[in-house]
TrEMBL record:
Keyword flag Transport: yes
Region listing for Disordered, in residue ranges: 1-50
Keyword Aminoacyl-tRNA synthetase: no
The organism's place on the tree of life at top rank: Bacteria
PROSITE patterns on file: ABC_TRANSPORTER_2
Pfam families per the UniProt record, alphabetical: ABC_tran
Name the UniProt record assigns to this protein: Phospholipid/cholesterol/gamma-HCH transport system ATP-binding protein
């Protein structure tokens, strides 16, 4: 334990005080600041790994654009990347979702809102095939996944990655090895390239130089940043975030929000964000779905939600204002 503390201090010190002549990655707090909202994702990446990272990011962006083009049209309109069509799910007699429909277009960010226990996480789990709906259809990348077997679901889980609240990192291996994991699985890069991508991704998400730490050495926010780096290493077409701002301080929440926004702008990543954090939803969401008593009570833009006369929506928004300090 003392050894780990020592290692963490050493890494943190390295981050603050680079050797003379060494590239000084920007501290996390300047990533995506208000004045430079959509600065390039690779802006904070060290010179030695920048060419590799630019190539990696360009490849990801091209792949996501191609994925969007591959989605079949529905009734002569571009199809959604993910859609729920009249989805119902119950556990025993307890109905969680009933005839719930919503969709996310390629490159769009959807926020799933609603009080505790309304089925937000259950929706994400169904989307990855960890739970099956009782009725209805769930389409991902143009395919109805409800009848998929485990092997087919693995293919979907490579296209759509989840960032869990706790990061779900492998505890017994280092941060760097966690991020390298999907790269090794894909088997396309050599060790030197993997090293460069891992370093670059960690710099990009604001946890530069933490490669050799264990997940247990990191704060909750850092774990989540590493989980995003690991998700990006897999070059997914979509990322699902389960409560990304829970248990992190407002600055870290802001940084995560900026990162998700830049991933959308520059990689055309499709995102679904489950959140209780209305400020976060306002910042990120192209559209929101509000779940209430088993139904998709509202599906539209944040602006439409705020202007709605619906009493349940008004109550939800008012309660949020009361709970959150200005
Ligand atoms: N595997 C399961 N078996 C039985 N019940 C479950 C299971 N998973 C979820 N539930 C129940 O389904 C309901 C919805 O759960 P879910 O985790 O989706 O809520 P949520 O909207 O994400 O809530 P929160 O905001 O508190 O995380 C809850 O009552 C939960 O207890």
């Amino acid at each position: 334990m003392a050894e780990q503390d020592e290692r963490k201090q050493e890494m943190l010190h390295k981050q603050r005080a680079p050797e003379e002549g060494e590239h000084n990655p920007e501290p996390a707090s300047t990533i995506g600041s208000e004045t430079d909202e959509h600065s390039p994702l690779t802006e904070d990446v060290s010179e030695d790994v920048a060419p590799m990272m630019e190539e990696f990011m360009e490849q990801a962006a091209a792949q996501n654009e191609a994925a969007a083009d591959d989605i079949p049209d529905v009734k002569n309109k571009p199809g959604s990347y993910i859609s729920f069509e009249k989805v119902s799910k119950a556990f025993g007699d307890f109905v969680v979702l009933e005839d719930v429909s919503f969709c996310v277009n390629p490159g769009e960010t959807l926020c799933i809102l609603g009080r505790s226990g309304v089925g937000k996480s259950v929706s994400l789990q169904m989307l990855l095939g960890f739970l099956k709906p009782d009725r209805g259809m769930i389409r991902v990348a143009g395919e109805d996944i409800c009848g998929f077997n485990e092997r087919q679901l693995q293919t979907i889980r490579r296209k759509v990655t989840m960032v869990f609240q706790n990061g779900a990192l492998f505890d017994s291996i280092t941060v760097g090895e966690n991020v390298a994991f999907p790269l090794r699985e894909r088997g396309e890069l050599g060790e030197e390239q993997i090293f460069q991508v891992v370093k670059g991704l960690l710099e990009m998400v604001g946890v530069a130089g933490m490669d050799n730490l264990l997940p247990s050495d990191l704060s909750t926010g850092m774990k989540r940043s590493v989980a995003i780096a690991r998700a990006l290493a897999a070059q997914p077409e979509a990322i699902l975030y389960d409560e990304p701002t829970t248990m992190v301080d407002p600055l870290m929440g802001h940084l995560l929000g900026d990162l998700i926004e830049r991933l959308k702008q520059q990689l055309h990543l499709t995102s679904i964000v489950v959140t209780h954090d209305m400020r976060f939803a306002k910042k990120l969401a192209d559209r929101v779905v509000f779940l209430h008593q088993g139904k998709a009570h509202f599906f539209g833009t944040m602006e439409e939600m705020e202007q709605s006369d619906d009493e349940i929506l008004k109550e939800f928004l008012t309660l949020d204002e009361l709970v959150l300090p200005a």
